[in-house]
């Protein structure tokens, strides 16, 4: 935020941090940081390393300063334990130093310069084993530790989204705000009849969406093209629409093993609005535009604005700014009249689903229809970019027991191998399904 104030430029690191925290504007980082705990701040280290890899100057400067500071602290400790010139071994511990080899080499290089002749090695195993060793000595018990990683000196120089007129001649009322003739007695219906009414209305949604198929196909093609050229997909919405965009975006990394950068959700009012209504946030058109600017959206990206009525100012501000930036823009709404509005977006998808059973409650049919459309966007785009073989999630991220079992079964289906063979191949391949499939060298089965 300091560099933005001074230089008028928002960095790639800033874009990453806003995405990671689900914030919309740089100014929102100030109160966030004031309330954040140490672990919340530390979790952003991953974004610093990723931005540095993308040649972000601020991130690189942070890491350079951090390496020098760590080395300086290490040498200060060494001076209290050894005399100058004596051999010293510095041990690198913690996930930042053990999982970021380039940064570890930078620290090692600084240590070598500040304490010539020193040795720098990664921690062999978790420090809790020191307590185990002491217990072993006092009790005679000899536990068998897990195999330790090789401890080799660190080389500091090596490389690694039917109306009627309103009173007083105002704009036509969106179908989402009209009263449904079938539910005028909703408050008097038997529960069984109300269930039948609601489900019968929901059953009409697929047909309404299907009538938009040519537009859906065009948008999916644009998303596929964006992914192939290094672009991203953004959903922008307020309230239920924004929450559904965030939901769909958050499911992409575990389902398709993609970066959380690839599909992003933006909600008016920021992360607080995910759980609580942010009064007035959806009416701020300028805030929608600023969000696009600060996420670094450009000509390689696709932006889907989601607004049940089609008129949400925050969404329109975002779409307008996205068009100016060269991104392909889409308005997803349930107000067919919006298709007659020129300049709103490159594509307007507006299934005619009629009024809500509960007047104006767009978390109902509009929400369900939104989820159906978003399912089409991401699922079929991922299929077209090689994330699916047959109907199998070959890039699933097996991050828990259930998903590891699914990964094994996927490899079994693809190769014809038995369960244990498939599991062994996955273990040897770092639980990457495609790598295990290749390792077993068998063709896919349709």
Mean pLDDT: 90
Q: Termini separation (Å)?
A: 52 Å
Give the structural class.
alpha/beta
Number of strands: 7
Shape: globular
> Which runs of at least 5 residues are low in confidence (pLDDT < 50)?
158-169
User: What pattern of helices and strands is seen along the backbone?
Assistant: HHHHHHEHHEHHHHEHEHHEHEEHHHH
Number of helices: 20
User: Describe the biggest sheet?
Assistant: 5 strands, parallel
SS strand fraction: 5-15%
- Strands of the biggest beta sheet: in what spatial order? 4-3-5-6-7
In which range does the helix fraction lie?
Answer: 40-55%
Radius of gyration: 27 Å
Walkthrough of the structure:
- The structure is a single chain.
- This protein is α/β, with parallel strands linked by helices and about 450 residues long.
- Helix content is about 50%, strand content about 5%.
- The chain is built from 20 helices and seven strands.
- The protein has a five-stranded parallel β-sheet with strand order 4-3-5-6-7, sandwiched between helices. A two-stranded parallel sheet has the order 1-2.
- Strand 3, helix 13 and strand 4 (about 265) form a beta-alpha-beta unit.
- Helix 12 (about 215-230) packs across helix 17 (about 365-385).
- The longest helix is centred in the first third of the chain and has 25 residues, at about 55-80.
- The radius of gyration is 27 Å and the shape is globular.
